[in-house]
Write a structure and sequence with these properties.
The chain is of the alpha/beta class. The chain is 28% helix and 24% strand. Helix 1 packs parallel to helix 2.
């Protein structure tokens, strides 16, 4: 018995200090990967901001967002529209003082 092939798209881009710009760029790259046949698209770690895990700075906690939240709302709609699965690394604020480098998996359903 042969297993069906699954096409995976990996997205690695430059990021800026603008969460909106980074999210828009990620959405565009997901669309490009899906157009090339990707069924699963994996975004880079913490793609909505400049990578900050190599420094300890209080300001970085402002980058955190709830899950579900703004980024998962946008990516969930894109996943449903394109019929793909999106794997997205996000900085999650679960509660005041409780933060995680989280991976959200957004299915086409």
């Amino acid at each position: 018995m042969t297993m069906p092939n699954v096409k995976i798209g990996l997205v690695q881009t430059t990021c800026s200090a603008s969460k909106e710009e980074n999210l828009a760029k990620a959405v565009q790259k997901v669309r490009e990967a899906a157009a090339k046949g990707a069924q699963i698209v994996c975004l880079q770690e913490l793609f909505t901001s400049l990578y900050f895990c190599d420094v300890e700075a209080y300001e970085n906690f402002k980058l955190a967002e709830p899950i579900p939240g703004p980024s998962t709302d946008v990516l969930g709609k894109v996943a449903a529209e394109l019929g793909v699965v999106i794997i997205a690394s996000l900085f999650e604020k679960r509660a005041e003082g409780l933060y995680h480098n989280t991976t959200a998996i957004l299915d086409a359903d």
